[in-house]
Design a protein that fits this description.
Layout: H1 7-22, H2 28-39, E1 64-66, E2 71-72, E3 81-85, E4 90-92, H3 95-101, E5 113-116, E6 122-124, E7 139-141, E8 146-148, E9 155-158, E10 163-166, E11 172-175, E12 180-183, E13 215-216, E14 224-225, H4 226-232, H5 250-262, E15 273-278, E16 284-288, E17 304-310
Antiparallel strand pairs: 1-2, 3-4, 3-5, 5-6, 7-8, 9-10, 11-12, 13-14, 15-16, 15-17
């Protein structure tokens, strides 16, 4: 048995505090109270989370999407109930909150119980509480056990995908080749590929088929999160997978052209040539050597990579 000042006890305390900080089902007030209780040594079964895998649920408390406005839910959804995770027997607001704070994932389809955060009645999962007769959310999916009360949020269930998706049903169609829902306005430029969504975002590495974020398909056809792409393009105009240009680069290339006209290469490089590969048109061409930029002779893009140069430097140079 270790004392409160021993290294083992301190490590255990740090571990419990980290667990409380990661528990997104707690309000800021409840989290502060539990951490204060831990620091003062007044921990109890009702004031701390149970260990992962325990058969006893954690003490039930309300969770908020926006505590100041009194909107119940979590950062991912607005709803008035918590779900009982069948894997660890703990009350969670949604599967994302569960997965973010634990070392295992929750099977959304296996959920059977919920508890109302208005009257605290435990009952089979559903849209309406059997105790206070209030709707737990404007949207409810019996298959995915998904509840959402966002007033401006649109969700629909796709039978072919087998999951709920964000957006209006009329704005999407299911592509049987890709086995995914595609925006109607992207039908003309959509390129089919079997199991296209069975991959990760090349920027954040999140599995796309399970993601709730908007997914975009640039002209190079590599899928990624729209938010990830926006952040990526703050410092690069190239696709993180194939290096193709992701936007209109005319202004960028005009600036490079202007720079090249004003720059003069040293005389010893006047006869040097480069074999380059263009990341935009995927063609090889030969152009004058430059320290920084090489213009594709096929499409005039500066999004190129140098493959080799000649003539080679003479011995001793």
């Amino acid at each position: 048995m270790c004392t409160s000042g021993s290294p083992q006890a301190q490590a255990a305390l740090r571990s419990e505090i980290k667990s409380l900080m990661a528990n997104t089902t707690l309000t800021e007030t409840e989290r502060a109270k539990r951490i204060q209780a831990l620091m003062s040594g007044r921990t109890s079964t009702s004031a701390s989370t149970t260990e992962e895998g325990s058969d006893s649920p954690v003490a039930f408390c309300k969770a908020y999407y926006n505590e100041e406005r009194g909107i119940l839910g979590c950062p991912h959804y607005q709803l008035k109930a918590k779900l009982l995770a069948p894997c660890c027997n703990q009350w969670v607001t949604c599967r994302f909150c569960h997965d973010e704070s634990r070392r295992h994932t929750m099977d959304r389809f296996a959920v059977t119980r919920m508890k109302c955060m208005l009257c605290f009645e435990e009952q089979p999962v559903g849209q309406r509480c059997s105790g206070c007769h209030q709707d737990m959310g404007r949207y409810y999916c019996q298959t995915c056990r998904l509840i959402d009360d966002g007033p401006d949020k649109h969700i629909f269930h796709c039978e072919q995908c087998g999951i709920c998706l964000s957006g209006r049903r009329s704005d999407y169609y299911h592509c049987s080749v890709c086995d995914a829902c595609v925006a109607v306005d992207a039908r003309e430029r959509h390129s089919c590929k079997e199991k296209r969504l069975q991959c990760t975002c090349p920027i954040c590495d999140e599995w796309l088929s399970d993601s709730v974020k908007s997914i975009v398909q640039p002209e190079c056809q590599h899928l990624m999160h729209e938010s990830c792409l926006s952040r990526h393009m703050e410092h690069s105009y190239k696709c993180p997978v194939c290096s193709a240009s992701l936007c209109d680069t005319r202004d960028i290339f005009d600036s490079i052209e202007c720079y090249l006209r004003l720059s003069v290469m040293p005389l010893e490089y006047k006869d040097k040539m480069s074999l380059i590969f263009c990341n935009d048109c995927r063609q090889r061409s030969v152009t004058k050597f430059h320290f920084l930029y090489h213009k594709c002779q096929a499409c005039c893009s500066f999004n190129t990579a140098m493959l080799s140069t000649w003539p080679k430097p003479a011995a001793g140079q």
